[in-house]
Design brief:
The N and C termini lie far apart (about 65 Å). The protein has 13 helices and twelve strands. Strand 5 and strand 6 form a beta hairpin. A six-stranded mixed sheet has the order 7-8-2-1-10-11.
Length: about 450
């Protein structure tokens, strides 16, 4: 009878290992894209400055030009080599690849028409009424030459430059490049819209019907800054804004949008999830787990702020270096899991307590790396001189902590249940998870190390 039970247990462990190998294979196949997950929002940022005055509401909008044109390229016809171009653009073949250039002749002939594309896709609702906006100004900039746009004052200054200054700035920009053409994908557009129908203190809803079918468009970072009565509230939303976001002058409502984004960021960041997972499966008790998570929180809170305010190196090599460090941190956390589990079976209680203290110190240090990763994302969507900076930073950090708590609440009770029923099965499961996390992180380490070396040598 004992022999049969042992055989049955061995079979269960073997099946578990097979399952973990299948999980590992799937994870390796699907884990190549998160290698630079912290930096995808770089190309997908839309900023709305909403100013309320006695004569209505003015929106200063900045967004990448492809958001307006990408879905308007025609289809190939029998008589055409190239598809019909989108408005305000020209198509061409470059080494057999279809590319899109800005048609500046068409733009300068009718800039308001380009702005009207944005206005028609923007839904501003007050009460039950959709308001129509008037396009008052439109500006185009090559990426890298655009003026600052983090505050209302900067947005107003951007629209104060006259046409001659803009033309001179554009000529100066393209003269430094080998290609005198301006790609649509390397262009941002600023649009000023006026809505006379919103009362000064009234709440409203903002949405967008744009669907350019661009890669990673669901990661679009929308930053909405509302100005009224000398006060500012900053709202944050991801995606295309298909669902209206309620804009009010409530501080709690504004902070809630950043809390939500902090939660989403950690849950969508597979590297952060794997690190927290390794902390969970390596803890012997809930108190030990909470101390580990606290150490991680302290570490990433420090560098989230430091990285956001630019108190870190700015070289191109630094980003992939941090990402490589994050991948290595997962390997280290997985090793800690396996190591501490072995010590539980062979070490004295005093030795285990000393080991746990060092683990807390280690997780605090590793949190410093992860905090930099969080800060890079936040810095791209919220500039240092943006209004209410500490409020937004605090809310985002709270969201990150809530995201960690959700992971713990999902995993820890399940581990306890398995441990109480069969401790050997829980041990095999956690060991398999640790090895799987290490294998995925090793793949990321190699990929990100290559990016680091490339950045150093270019």
């Amino acid at each position: 009878m004992p022999h049969h039970a042992n055989k049955s247990g061995s079979s269960a462990v073997a099946q578990l290992r097979q399952w973990m190998l299948m999980l590992l294979g799937f994870a390796l196949i699907t884990s190549s894209t998160p290698a630079s997950a912290h930096f995808l929002l770089n190309l997908n940022v839309r900023i709305f400055h909403v100013e309320h005055t006695a004569d209505g509401t003015t929106i200063y909008l900045r967004l990448p030009l492809p958001y307006l044109l990408a879905d308007k390229v025609g289809t190939n016809e029998a008589s055409r080599v190239l598809p019909a171009p989108a408005p305000y653009s020209r198509n061409a073949l470059e080494e057999g690849r279809l590319v899109h250039f800005v048609d500046f002749e068409q733009f300068y002939a009718d800039p308001q028409g380009l702005g009207a594309i944005a206005e028609s896709a923007l839904q501003l609702e007050s009460g039950d009424q959709r308001l129509n906006g008037l396009v008052t100004d439109v500006r185009l900039y090559a990426v890298g030459s655009e003026p600052d746009f983090a505050t209302l004052q900067e947005a107003q200054v951007a629209f104060s430059l006259d046409e001659q200054q803009l033309r001179e700035g554009y000529v100066q920009t393209i003269s430094q490049t080998s290609n005198p053409q301006q790609y649509v994908g390397d262009t941002v557009i600023d649009i000023r819209l006026h809505y006379p129908g919103i009362a000064r203190g009234e709440d409203y809803r903002l949405a967008s019907f744009l669907n350019p079918n661009l890669p990673d468009q669901e990661k679009t970072a929308n930053l909405i800054l509302d100005y009224r009565d000398g006060k500012t509230q900053v709202f944050r939303s991801s995606g295309l804004l298909n669902e209206p976001i309620q804009i009010s002058h409530s501080t709690s409502s504004a902070m809630a949008t950043f809390i939500h984004e902090g939660v989403v960021h950690i849950l969508a960041g597979l590297d952060h999830v794997l690190f927290v997972l390794c902390l969970i499966i390596g803890a012997a008790s809930l108190s030990a787990l909470m101390w580990r998570v606290t150490g991680f929180t302290v570490g990433h809170s420090v560098t989230l702020s430091a990285g956001f305010f630019g108190l870190v190196p700015s070289g191109a090599w630094f980003v992939p270096l941090v990402e490589t460090g994050i991948a290595l941190s997962i390997i280290y956390a997985a090793w800690m899991t396996i190591s501490t589990r072995r010590k539980r079976n062979s070490s004295a209680p005093g030795s285990l307590r000393r080991s746990e203290r060092w683990i807390i110190v280690g997780t605090c240090g590793l949190g410093l790396l992860h905090g930099l990763g969080f800060s890079f994302v936040l810095h791209e969507i919220l500039k240092v001189d943006a209004p209410n900076i500490w409020q937004s930073l605090l809310a985002f950090n709270i969201g990150v902590e809530l995201g960690q708590a959700l992971i713990i609440l999902a995993i820890w009770p399940l581990l306890l249940l398995i441990r109480n029923r069969r401790e050997s099965l829980e041990h095999s499961l956690c060991t398999g998870i640790a090895f799987s996390c290490s294998a995925i992180a090793l793949f990321w380490t190699l990929d990100r190390s290559y990016q680091f070396v490339t950045a150093l040598t270019t």
